[in-house]
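Retro notes - structure team

What went well: the batch runner handled both jobs without manual restarts.
What didn't: labels got mixed up in the shared folder, which is why I'm recording both outputs here explicitly, each with its sequence directly above its tokens.

Job 1
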Amino acid sequence: MRNFTTTLHKKKPWAKALLSIGGGASNSSAFAAIAANPSLRATFIASTINVARNYGFDGLDLDWEFPATQQDMSNLATLFAEWRTAVNKESVTSSRPRRPRLLLSAAVYFASNFFLSSTPRAFPAESINKNLDFVNVMCYDYHGSWDTSATGAHALLYDRTSNISTSYGVGSWISAGVGPRKVVMGLPLYGRTWQLKDPAVHGIGAPAVGVGPGAGGVLTFREIVDFNGRNKATTVYDADTISTYSFAGNAWIGYDGVWSVRGKVQYAKARGLASIAWNS
């Protein structure tokens, strides 16, 4: 990790490195236990700061997927507040000359609230806006292998038929009180695939009978480019949803291509967002 941060710090202009803790395969219950207990919160906070400084990181990111109850969300708000107090104090008292404060961020659900869940809950937007430098909003995985009945644009910007879209999700964060300049819009560097029921019917929402190529119906962007080239796939940019898909035979892939990325970047600029982030 020290080699990683040192390499980034040699870049001109200076590039910053954040250590992300958690992820999709991490133990959500462990995070819940930490956030609920004052002693465990203090231990976690001190440990993360120590690791960040030892390896030269410029900040810390929490990727808790996901708080399961509103009480978890309340505890998360407390964790963020105590974390911010601790990094503020550490930057002032740890050494001379004063070191820049460690940045704090979090990876979060595409919307500020889990409106699709049987357990409705909302992220602590006030605490996030006050204590974090930014949030990485997961604007992808709207559709996938859990629904093989129809193709889906898994990271579409607009959806006229539902609120499952990036525009709705980003808007919900801003409406909840998180400033646009603290919102980073996540984009996927991978696609999700389906097997078409009828190769002649191949639009978004076309009938499907299962996942297509790739492990679990997922292809990296490089694999998509290779697949499209090998199979002479037809590539379609859908201007209504701001998404891209390709098809060849009965294989269908939904992903972000050049034009859909451009559309999303334009949207991010128009909304005054902090940035975009790639997720692989």
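Job 2
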Amino acid sequence: MDLEHIDNMHFDVLKEIGNIGAGNATTALSQLINSKVDMKVPVVDLLEFRDLPDTVGGAETIVVGILLTLDGDIDGMMMFMLDEESAHHLVDMIVGKKTDGSNEFTEMDLSALNEIGNIIAGAYLSSLSALTNMRISASVPYMSIDMAGAILSVPAIEFGKIGDKALLIQSQFCEDDDEVNGYFILIPTLDSYGKIMSSLGL
């Protein structure tokens, strides 16, 4: 599959995968905090690795990244990324407290973030698995808080040798006045992109 010259039909399928996955993740988040969470229509794009940091405000922006490697019928990597303020809002939703988003993360906050990321990413992957009828296994999540450029260099180095594009799904979750900007970055191998399309009859 040639991601450099992807046609509109294939891109529409990728966008639909992004929309369904983000919707599933929103449902999981609602159940987790036992409260209604609204989701704005996700923005789905196929971007080169070098352009990804700009989507979160630049390479030096501090972000929380939760990374899972994928295997089974689909190989690759998935990352759920949040800017620092959104990460604080997400923790506040879970534990039911209100902060100004500028305090340091406690050990409990970090543990909660790791678990949230695991649940949200898992919900995303389970919808992809159900849609394609393929088995997808994910590793234990690895969480890091660092500059976006540093965190995003991991998939760029790992997958740069087989391609330089990632599927980015930018989602905004809202609960009351709190807004969380979340970024799903799905990086299947080129072979896996082909398998996804074949499973959907394309």
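One thing worth noting from job 2: The chain has six helices and eight strands.
We'll revisit the folder naming next retro.
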